[in-house]
Amino acid sequence: MSELSVNHLLGIKYITKADIDLIFETADQFKEVINRPIKKVPSLRDITIANLFFENSTRTKLSFELAEKRLSADVINFSAGASSVKKGETLIDTVNNILSMKVDMVVMRHPNPGAGVFLSKNIKASIVNAGDGAHEHPTQALLDTYSIRRELGEVTGKKVVIVGDILHSRVALSNIFALRMLGAEVKVCGPKTLMPRYIESLGVGVELNLQKALQWCDVANMLRVQNERMDISYFPSTREYTQQYGLNKEILDGLDKKIVVMHPGPINRGVELTSDVADSEQAIILNQVENGVAIRMAVIYLLASKIKHNASR
Asked: Do the beta carbons of residue 145 and residue 204 sit within 8 Å?
């Protein structure tokens, strides 16, 4: 059986195209499982997973938890807001306490970029990065690219535009890495103030005009404006942002081709997308949510297989 080249999923930049292909193949099998009447498989009955969320998250946390339970793993949930982290306990202390309960895998979201890498060097469990600051969000990029593959047959050669707050978005960065690895052409579109200086060095084009970007692409991934990460004002007002970079039905219907519309959620309805776009046939936002469970099942299953393999050596 082929296996992942890594013991952790810390970011797309640490994995190979072969890893992504293996995750997608495994997700295809799990997609079939989650559409059965009995949606559980006993694959990870002997694995204990701790979900450590040092930042608020509803959808990602639920998706991981569901994936873990579908695989019959034992699950511990830890939310840092109400915990001893507030009393000054360090990340290592918190995790070591949890590991002393014999945990095999840690799924962690943390506000500091590189927190997962730091952890992987200091503890024995397998780490899955569920988002580290404005750095990476690898499972989101995997489910996004997987959703494009399911919808359009393949990712290679497809034109994908990522629209919105590129500067603060870990989703944008991970998506750029994954899409380019799979052979897609990528452009980013948004206000100049929300473009990182280094963006073109990642091999992507920059288009400041939404209309032109949509006319060019096969897929538009509309990002949420991350107000919570902004310490200064990057554009005059939400209304002005929406006028320039919001996608409405009139714009969508005015294109001379059908494009696929995506959104990593949660949607600010009326800001990045109007409701009639979010609920239209061209939007695959709910497919992304379903695919997210299958992708996270695949990642957890493949990493757990390596844990078992390494233990039996």
From this structure: no
